[in-house]
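FORM 7B: Structural annotation worksheet

SECTION A. Query
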Amino acid sequence: QVRLVESGGGLVQAGGSLSLSCVVSGRTFRLYAMGWFRQAPGKEREFVAAISWNGKETIYSDSVKGRFTVSRDDFKTTVYLQMNNLKPEDTAIYYCAIQNTIFRGPYNVRDEYDYWGQGTQVTVSS
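SECTION B. Predicted structure
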């Protein structure tokens, strides 16, 4: 059974930083690209960042580019999202997801991911 478990969310003031982690089990992690998405109240889930299966390619949404960094540790089967200079509009539930096909690059399309974590809340106060 594939399982993704996020952690690291919390409450932070604007301008602060948080680091999210997502531990994956039940699938050969090192073969799959990973993604981060978020969903704010009343809004659809949106793409945040993704990293290729080998860690050589990353992509970001325009709203987080330059502030967020996605990385992975294949030995720990964990993907990370380092979030700096947080803004109130970053407030959302953050989800990690694993792609449905091996050896692929990063994608910003939800349909490319077939398993998701339960989410972790990030709240940024102004």
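SECTION C. Observations
The CA atoms of residues 47 and 108 lie 6 Å apart. The longest strand covers residues 92-102.

SECTION D. Sign-off
Analyst initials: ____
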